[in-house]
Amino acid sequence: MSGGGGAAHGEHASGGARGEGHAAPRDAIEIVAATGNPHKLEEIRAVLEPIGFRVRSLVDAGDAGPEPVESGDAFEANAAIKAIAYARRLGAIVLADDSGLEVDLLNGEPGVHSAHWAGSEGSRAERDARNNARLLAALAGVPVELRSARFVCTLCVAAPDGSVLLEARGELEGRIAETPRGEHGFGYDPLFVVPEFDRTSAELAPAEKNEISHRGRALRRLAFLLRHKGILVG
Fold this sequence. Notes:
Layout: E1 29-33, H1 38-48, E2 53-56, H2 58-61, H3 75-90, E3 94-103, H4 124-138, E4 148-158, E5 164-176, E6 192-194, E7 199-200, H5 206-212, H6 214-229
Helix pairs in contact: 1-6
């Protein structure tokens, strides 16, 4: 389940205003982004619209039905579950992701459970606060050299018949801070230190974060595959 850089379940955002500088051409191929997170939607648009896609949200696409149950034990499996289910329901090309945080000392936890690691109740902000508190408690007294972690994002693109067209993965290595820092971002961002900046993800400006984020890396890999494999793009 998406967390840290992912979307909370059941929070379907509208298409929203598109950022300047990456409007899709009129003959763009339409793709539905299976996300309820407006920040994630904008990041997807920023990468895919310049190469010939018009990215729509689930709300734009119509009645997408209930959110699929993410029963996979890996990010790749859950991204595929969402992409295939929504593609078949909507009769559209769908891009879905699953993302989260892996902490080495915790054997990869919270992993696919990142978004709801400390429970599913309450708003996204309340869940984030509980998740971060649980993470800090789990690493209490652990020295900095043993606090290594990474954000992971996997992407899956499915065709209207449910066949998988492409998959991509991006990772961002870092470590877990001892206290939350920063005002930007969401999820585990206030606790995730990016070594090259020696700041947490929440201390980075959005443009800085997008340049190095796990999702940005996965999206750029996906864009590369789309261009060079010629899938969907003429």
